[in-house]
Amino acid sequence: MSKAKVVLTDYVWESLDIEEEILGSIANIIPLQVTEPEAFFPEATDCEALLNTYGGPITADTMARMPNCKIIARYGIGVDTIDLDAATEAGIIVTNNPTYCVEEVAEHTLAMLLTCARKISFYDRLVRNGEWSVPPGKPMFRLAGSTIGLIGFGNIARRVAKGASSLDMQVLYSDPFVEEGQFDAPGEKVDFDDVLKNSDYLCIHAPLTSETRGMIGAEEFLQMKKTAFVINCSRGPIINTEALVNALDDRQIGGCALDTTDPEPLPIDHTLQSRENVIINPHVAWYSEQAMEGLQRGAPSEVRLALEGKWPTNVVNQAVKENNRAGIK
Fold it and tell me: Annotated catalytic, 270?
């Protein structure tokens, strides 16, 4: 029996041993290192599966050039680079890897929150510049009794909620897809505007969609406390960067901590880079050695299931189950 052709658009790890372990017996893996969809071809023209990290956007036009493709499997969580409606229309299964870094992103969010609250980065820079002094960092406020607001209440946000609750913080959340009491996690569901108005620390955990792109903008910053910090370990474009800069300039908020930015990477000369009340990380919240292995195993495992005529575990476009190229019932 001939092996299936699987094209890997791009990857950020050193070895493909895991991919070969999972797929080698049933597929030939063609590794590329490209992010522009035009560069997927001609290799992707006759592929049966596409493994994808950052390459995209994968549009209807891109899919039309892959008539045999049964599945597009993303290594990460977000699928904002893939046109899901077009994939469903074409009968292509789209999968993601929603749990590989839940602990890491939640831990990173809490680390950023604590760093903002205790001004750890600020004081570190102060000492390294030769000043040993407390007053420059004033004012600071006790975390216990303060309020954390969570935009989105998925796996990561709920883990953040548990950590924040253990610090005696009040937890509020806004998520149109979650009912009050649906999950065993601390937190009170309130309206989006109430989260903005009451949060001392506003943490973004929503996926990037057409509805959430730019959802934190000028009007939202105006509703927030002047001492509030915004923490984003989700997707950069959820925050309107220009509005964020203006809010910082006008002292409408206390500061921010960003693991993801828009654009990404953030240019070295960008105005956010030079601010004492801004923390920027290079989209690293997802990473640990354990998460890396979970990341690398997820997408190939989904592809194997599809190629064997079985439903993958994490199908994003559920409507494709009615009519899919893989012929899975």
Answer: no
